[in-house]
UniProtKB/TrEMBL annotation, chain A:
Positions of transmembrane segments: none
Organism of origin: Nannocystis pusilla
InterPro entries from the UniProt entry: Ald_Oxase/Xan_DH_a/b, Ald_Oxase/Xan_DH_a/b_sf, Ald_Oxase/xanthine_DH-like, AldOxase/xan_DH_MoCoBD1, AldOxase/xan_DH_MoCoBD2, AldOxase/xan_DH_Mopterin-bd_sf
UniProt keyword annotation of Oxidoreductase present: yes
Protein name: Xanthine dehydrogenase family protein molybdopterin-binding subunit
Lineage: Bacteria, Pseudomonadati, Myxococcota, Polyangia, Nannocystales
Pfam families: Ald_Xan_dh_C, MoCoBD_1, MoCoBD_2
Domain Aldehyde oxidase/xanthine dehydrogenase a/b hammerhead: 22-134
Keywords (A to Z) from UniProt: Molybdenum, Oxidoreductase
Automatic annotation (TrEMBL), chain B:
Pfam families linked: Fer2, Fer2_2
SUPFAM superfamilies reported in the protein's UniProt record: 2Fe-2S ferredoxin-like, CO dehydrogenase ISP C-domain like
Tree of life domain: Bacteria
Sorted UniProt keywords: Iron, Metal-binding, Oxidoreductase
Protein name: (2Fe-2S)-binding protein
CDD domains cross-referenced by the UniProt entry: fer2
Domain 2Fe-2S ferredoxin-type, chain residue ranges per copy: 1-76
Length: 723, 152
């Protein structure tokens, strides 16, 4: 075999880009089927209480209306699986289960009509009489459930009391929303007794398991297709309520039903990131070495989620605070507050994006208090093993990230005094933070089939895993082209179909790390089989020739991710260092991020082009978290206020700074055969804290409550002028 | 009956007068490359050209487009040959999930036409003029790079 150049880690165009720039990539809402009917929903006008009566008379008279479903006529559905790892429902009760209302916007009726206009019009004509009950939507104003079994080590209370230096600060985050550009969409249809669903989902097998249970079908009678998904960021893990209802309506009508959430329904009915209040207590020696860290979090859950027995999910803020820095005494406490809001879920780097906001903010405060450079403080508290489990990292290069990032940013030139740098009307500030995310992977399988045509051998790669924009199509094509020494254009990748070899949910930055090694394993099996047909071990023969000689026709192999090293021996973790420059014009109070430098260790990078894009995307997600994003609920009625893209503001072109992203070429071979960890989430993790630290450096104002808005800074600056 | 001219082809449609241009394209003509991200004119995913100018098709009524020429992402390439902006988006990796991409490309092509002197268009100017097109994946720096590549 001729040796092809090794492609792994190099740049390269996305293999699905051609489809995406021509409008040919087909997302769920693009699926057209004959006789397609359209769904619309009526959401509850109260956040808590009961539906007393629903009057559908006027809606039924609208031309083209085919079906109206409410809790009176939705019909029976099986129990939804939840908490058993096979699937996730956003609400333990199926939609339209009964008259109870637990959050504003909860579906109380579904209309299906010949056209989307008719369905929307009819839904608006449904009259609902409610019996409202008091609603609680303020995390600071409701009773909490304290979690048992909180992580701890040493004697935190005693160490805090004895520490020469102590810091006690409260950091908070509002409700924030993943808010992908593609609204959640489903096209459901029944083929005989089999259900076929085109869905915007991160997890086709989760969808399949949930729908199979709901309709009492064997798994293989349900097929889920998601070849393209328009972003997700955690919000398409659960099988959404409307997906289930679309399948119910399609069965009832005997025709396909398309269901696309309106933007305000995405914001009101798809789980957000929970609000948090995080008290961080640090105890340190005078040189800054930590002796105690106590992290007390308050976050919210939904009143109807059955927390904690039925659904234990809560924003896992302490996951990162317990492990990041060397500190002998640690204690986490977590209180969870049930509110009349949609059940919170996962949003990019759940736990890290919130937990690091608090911890890294507190570390910057400690550095200021001690007069120690914030970077030096991190180095003094660095650990080469997981501080909580004590396990050594198989690959850990955080010091190098700090070093290289500081060099690229010019950190050494920083004058530590707040307001020491000005440019024109603006205060300029520099801040930094550590970024980190666990190396995750799951059982996964990939089928690779090798065949030949007149141009020689080509490979077809298939797995149920979903590419949410992450670059999975490209990563698998690169890995297979590399392992089989084929040109990239001779590798075809098929994804996102529940009939393909099983793959886990695209989440936790796990998928490339799970599927790329599996694809490689399949290729190695194929190589072994075909190389046996060489005339002698030194023969150079193309795969096409060997296939012909074998007389086999196409051959295929299914690869699984190999088990990694000795179980439990190592911890796997990605790290990074993020440096930020901001400008604040005091008269405007507006923070402009002008420069970001991020240096990451994510193990072996598979495709440099997509990885760079994803890390930048994570950083911009962090910029939104820091400066823009807040989903507000009216405290009296629980109504999401401004639930659209003008009210829930996400970063736009004009918000984008110069971003310098790089990574260390540091494979983590103990983690998997390729040494690659994911890069989908780490980009966001340190950004908010780095921005807040830079704002403090620029202005002297410490903001501990996100987002950092102009009105907040203006109020502080005005207060100073009065003083 | 409404006569719509889209990508050079004429279509006679019996339309509900409430139908937006976006829904007419997607649901009646099968041109699903144009995306619905918000249906409120706030995200730009539905951007198309009407007589060469960028228009948010979710805020335009289909019946009002008679006598005008509509171009969608499907009509931008010359047969198999990509429009230079499409090519630049591929080369600069100016996308991730791809959902906002058709709108970004249509917006970028028309934006360059709006400017009197493209050579004086700064990066900040491009960012400002493209800010009606949201990308949640954060491919913005690469979108800027693609537009700069096409700008003469």
């Amino acid at each position: 075999m001729a040796t092809a150049s090794r492609r792994i880690g190099g740049p390269g165009e996305r293999v699905d880009a051609g489809l995406k720039v021509t409008g040919q990539a087909r997302y769920a809402a693009d699926v057209a089927l004959p006789d397609l009917a359209h769904a619309a929903y009526l959401g509850s006008a109260i956040a808590s209480g009961r539906v007393l009566a629903i009057d559908t008379t006027r809606a039924e008279q609208v031309g083209g209306v085919l079906l109206i479903l409410t809790h009176h006529n939705r019909g029976p559905l099986g129990d939804l699986p939840n908490g058993d790892g096979t699937a996730l429902a956003p609400d333990p009760r199926p939609p339209l289960a009964d008259a109870r209302v637990h959050y504003h916007g909860q579906f109380v009726a579904m209309v299906v009509a010949e056209s989307p206009e008719q369905a929307a019009h009819a839904a608006a004509l449904i009259g609902v009489t409610y019996e409202p009950a008091p609603c609680l939507v303020d995390i600071d104003d409701a009773e909490a459930i304290r979690l048992e079994d909180n992580p701890r080590r040493g004697d935190c209370a005693a160490a805090l009391r004895a520490a020469p230096v102590a810091l006690d600060v409260l950091y908070s985050t509002p409700v924030q929303h993943p808010c992908p550009l593609e609204p959640h969409a489903t096209v459901a249809h029944w083929v005989g007794h089999d259900l076929v669903v085109h869905d915007s989902t991160q997890w086709v097998l989760g969808d399949r398991a949930l729908l199979a249970r709901a309709f009492g079908l064997a798994d293989d009678r349900v097929r889920i297709c998601a070849p393209f998904v328009g972003g997700s960021f955690g919000s398409k893990v659960c099988t959404a309520a409307h997906t289930l209802l679309a399948a119910v309506a399609a069965r009832r009508l005997g025709r396909p039903v398309k269901s696309v959430l309106r933007r305000e329904q995405v914001l009101a009915t798809i789980g957000p990131r929970a609000a948090t209040r995080q008290r961080i207590q640090l105890g340190a020696e005078r040189d800054g070495r930590l002796v105690a860290l106590r992290h007390h979090t308050r976050s919210h859950c939904a009143v109807n989620s059955g927390f904690p027995d039925r659904d234990p999910f809560h924003e896992p803020t302490s996951g990162v605070t317990r492990m990041l820095y060397a500190c002998p005494n640690y204690e986490a406490v977590h209180d969870v507050v049930p509110l009349h809001l949609m059940k919170p879920g996962w949003m990019r780097a759940p736990g890290e994006a919130t937990g690091l906001w608090a911890l890294e903010g507190a570390m910057d405060e400690l550095a200021c208090r001690l007069g120690v450079d914030p970077l030096e403080l991190r180095l003094r508290n660095h650990t080469a093993h997981n501080a909580h489990t004590g396990k050594p990292y198989a690959g850990e290069h955080l010091r190098e990230c700090y070093e290289r990032g500081a060099e690229r940013f010019g950190w050494a030139r920083r004058d530590p005094r707040p307001r020491s740098m000005r440019e024109g009307d603006a205060f300029v500030g520099w801040g930094l933070a550590t970024a980190t995310h666990p190396g995750n992977s799951d059982d996964a399988s990939v089928r690779v089939r090798l065949d030949r045509d007149s141009r020689g051998a080509y490979a077809s790669v298939a797995t149920a895993g979903v590419d949410l924009g992450t670059g999975l199509y490209t990563a698998l094509a690169v890995v297979v082209a590399d392992a089989l020494e084929l040109p990239l254009e001779r590798v075809h990748v098929e994804l996102g179909d529940s009939r393909l070899p099983p793959a886990p949910v695209t989440g936790g930055s796990n998928l490339t790390a799970s599927l790329a090694p599996a694809a490689r394993a399949a290729c190695l099996q194929l190589r072994r089989r075909l190389l046996g047909f060489r005339r002698d071990p030194d023969e150079l023969a193309a795969w096409g020739e060997l296939l012909a000689r074998a007389g086999l026709g196409p051959i295929e192999a299914v690869g699984a991710a190999e088990p990694r090293g000795v179980p439990g021996q190592y911890a796997y973790q990605s790290f990074g260092a993020q440096f930020v420059e901001v400008r604040v014009v005091p008269e405007l109070g507006q923070v402009r991020v002008t420069r970001v430098v991020g240096v990451f260790d994510v193990g072996q990078v598979v495709n440099a082009t997509a990885t760079r894009n994803q890390l930048i995307g994570g950083i911009l997600f962090g910029l939104g978290q820091a400066l823009l994003e807040r989903l507000v609920h009216d405290p009296a009625r629980g109504v999401p206020v401004g639930a659209d893209l003008a009210g829930y503001v996400i970063p736009a072109h004009a918000d984008v700074p110069d971003i310098d992203v790089s990574w260390l070429d540091t494979p983590d071979p103990a983690f998997n055969a390729l040494g690659c960890r994911g890069a989908g989430e780490i980009g966001i993790t340190g950004v908010a804290a780095a921005i807040a630290s830079a704002v403090h450096h620029a202005t002297g104002i410490r903001v501990r409550d996100l987002p950092i808005t102009p009105e907040r800074l203006l109020a502080e600056l005005a207060g100073e002028r009065e003083d | 009956m409404v006569l719509l001219s889209v990508n050079g082809a004429r279509h006679e449609l019996d339309l509900d007068p409430r139908t937006s241009l976006l829904d007419a394209l997607r649901e009646r003509l099968g041109l699903t490359g144009t995306k619905k991200g918000c249906d409120h004119g706030q995200c730009g995913a539905c951007t198309v050209h009407v007589d060469g100018r960028r228009v948010l098709s979710c805020l335009a009524l289909a019946v009002a487009q008679q006598g005008h020429e509509v171009t969608t992402i499907e009509g931008l390439a010359a047969g198999e040959r990509l429009h230079p902006m499409q090519r630049a988006f591929v080369e600069c990796d100016a996308l991730q999930c791809g959902f906002c991409t058709p709108g970004q490309i249509m917006s970028a092509v028309a934006m360059l036409v709006e400017v009197d002197d493209r050579r004086r268009l700064t990066d900040a100017g491009i960012r400002e003029r493209m800010s009606g097109n949201l990308c949640r994946c954060g491919a913005y720096p690469n979108i800027l790079a693609a537009i700069r590549r096409v700008r003469p």
